[in-house]
């Protein structure tokens, strides 16, 4: 008791940027997968979370990536996304340059104090102008090392899989400075990244474990959802018995569907989990009713 043994954990990296600048294609290149082909209209509708292993300075390093949708409707989710993020990769298409959601994304990351690495993407395209991107971002405080600043810019082509290793090395150089650690020897805590109701499987919640170890059989409260963890899966659909810090994992067994950004914790039994969930639900309902009952007073009116 009281002894908190911290161990190295994988960095959590959020990929941000304007619509269609290549976030999902970049993550596909990093993972050597093809998520983009399965998307409706090529638009990311949900937040994907994946862990990869990258050889770096003679060691295999785990890295967790979160792909945030670029669509404006998801701005709120992205704002929450920054809270779990250790390092942000800002994707800017070299043919398009800095766009409104590029600025929005960098504002979120800067406000959260998260270091930013710029991936200047689509350098393979005709009309690509990486220097212009560098100049544009300088105005937002992201000054390239080449210009005497301290922001790493990496030129990549997600399509042609160029510059990917350099980008991963840059992320690890940055995250290593942060000395990211967590204690795996306690019950897990973390955040729901996304959740949905699946016809066959019921409530499916992707959580990011931030500390401790999540185990199948644990009783969990996540937002106002609760239940016993019936099964866990990694991003490839493989069964996991345990999930260590920085691992994103799909959890089955919750009573309902929580919201992205809801925190989770582990309780001693199912009854406690239900009671905490009930308490939260009552508090939320009361807060909502109080808002509805609120009438304009003379002080409000000026
Ligand atoms: P949202 O999720 O909708 O915000 O888009 P996104 O940022 O995830 O972009 P996505 O990965 O869907 O890529 C958008 C388009 O750009 C797709 O047609 C990609 O194939 C293309 N693309 C992405 N990276 C590159 C690249 O390096 N070069 C070229 N030529 N095309 C690319
Ligand atoms: Na897209
Ligand atoms: Mg996408």
Automatic annotation (TrEMBL):
Domain Tr-type G: 8-181
Residue stretches in coiled coil: 266-293
Record-listed GTP binding positions: 17-24, 67-71, 121-124
Intracellular or extracellular location(s): Cytoplasm
Family: Belongs to the TRAFAC class translation factor GTPase superfamily. Classic translation factor GTPase family. IF-2 subfamily.
Function: One of the essential components for the initiation of protein synthesis. Protects formylmethionyl-tRNA from spontaneous hydrolysis and promotes its binding to the 30S ribosomal subunits. Also involved in the hydrolysis of GTP during the formation of the 70S ribosomal complex.
Protein name: Translation initiation factor IF-2
Originating organism: Glutamicibacter ectropisis
């Amino acid at each position: 008791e009281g002894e908190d043994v911290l161990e190295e954990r994988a960095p959590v990296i959020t990929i941000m940027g304007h619509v269609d600048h290549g976030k999902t294609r970049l993550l596909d290149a990093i993972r050597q997968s093809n998520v983009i082909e399965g998307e409706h209209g090529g638009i990311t509708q949900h937040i994907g979370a994946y862990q990869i292993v990258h050889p770096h300075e003679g060691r295999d390093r785990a890295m967790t990536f979160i792909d945030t949708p670029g669509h404006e409707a998801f701005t709120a989710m992205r704002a929450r996304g920054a809270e779990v993020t250790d390092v942000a990769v800002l994707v800017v298409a070299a043919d398009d340059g800095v766009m409104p959601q590029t600025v929005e994304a960098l504002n979120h990351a800067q406000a959260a104090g998260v270091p930013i690495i710029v991936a200047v993407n689509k350098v393979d395209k005709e009309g690509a102008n990486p220097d212009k991107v560098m100049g544009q971002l300088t105005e937002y405080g992201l000054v390239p090392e080449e210009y005497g600043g301290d922001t790493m810019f990496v030129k990549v082509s997600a399509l042609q899989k160029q510059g990917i290793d350099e980008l991963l090395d840059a992320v690890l150089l940055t995250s290593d400075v942060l000395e990211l650690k967590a204690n795996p020897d306690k019950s897990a805590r973390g955040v729901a990244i996304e959740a949905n109701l699946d016809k066959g499987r019921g409530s499916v919640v992707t959580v990011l474990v931030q500390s401790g170890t999540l185990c199948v059989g644990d009783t969990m409260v996540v937002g106002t959802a609760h239940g016993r963890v019936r099964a866990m899966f990694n991003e490839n659909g493989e069964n996991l018995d345990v999930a260590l810090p920085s691992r994103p994992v799909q959890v089955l067994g919750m009573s309902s569907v929580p919201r992205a950004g809801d925190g989770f914790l582990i309780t001693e039994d199912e009854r406690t989990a239900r009671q905490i969930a009930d308490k939260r639900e009552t508090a939320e309902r009361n807060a909502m009713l109080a808002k509805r009952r609120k009438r304009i007073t003379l002080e409000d009116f000026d």
